From TrEMBL:
Residues of the active site: R91, E94, S117
Annotated source species: Corynebacterium vitaeruminis DSM 20294
All copies of domain Cyanate lyase C-terminal, residue ranges: 78-149
Protein name as it appears in the record: Cyanate hydratase
Enzyme Commission (EC) number: 4.2.1.104
Catalytic activity: cyanate + hydrogencarbonate + 3 H(+) = NH4(+) + 2 CO2
Keyword Lipid metabolism: no
Transmembrane segments annotated in the record for this chain: none
Broadest EC class assigned to this enzyme: lyase
Keyword Lyase: yes
GO molecular function (one): cyanate hydratase activity
UniProt keyword list: Lyase
Length: 149
């Protein structure tokens, strides 16, 4: 009996086959009728993919049962420190390091003592044209969770 494929390995196969088939992440998100960022994260291994959605993606990308089975598993959500070497990821971290204290102050001023949930959470991604160079627009949308005793 074979062990279940690692979710992140399955995600690499999804990404490779997506590229080979000329599909975008947006097309796959539309195929499964889910938000773009969630779909991309899930197909790369960060969320369990419901069976009917895993079936659709694997059929579209001509991937096997091993990938389908792995996509449906609960992930282990851990951070790989090596990702910080990637310039795109580093810049997101830099933005949080620089603006994090201001965002914290604004959350507390607007909502009181608490935090933004990263579980009851949505994230949107978009591109906005600008004469000085196109803009990357990332929106975090998390439920406010107040600290209470």
């Amino acid at each position: 009996m074979q062990p279940i494929m690692d979710k992140y390995e399955a995600g690499k196969l999804v990404d490779a086959q997506r590229i080979r088939k000329g599909k975008t992440w947006a097309e796959l998100a539309a195929l499964i009728d889910r938000p773009l960022v969630w779909s991309t994260s899930a197909l790369l291994g960060s969320f369990p993919v419901p069976e009917e959605l895993a079936d659709k993606v694997c059929a579209e990308l001509e991937l096997g049962e091993d990938v389908r089975e792995a996509l449906m598993q609960q992930p282990t959500r851990a951070f790989d420190a090596a990702l910080l070497d990637d310039p795109t990821i580093y810049r997101f971290m830099e933005a949080i390091k620089v603006h994090g204290p201001a965002l914290k102050a604004l959350v507390h001023e607007e909502f009181g003592d608490g935090i933004m949930s990263a579980i009851n959470f949505q994230m949107d991604f978009d591109r906005r044209e600008d004469p000085a160079g196109d803009r990357v627009v990332v929106t975090f949308d998390g439920k406010f969770l107040d600290y209470h005793w």
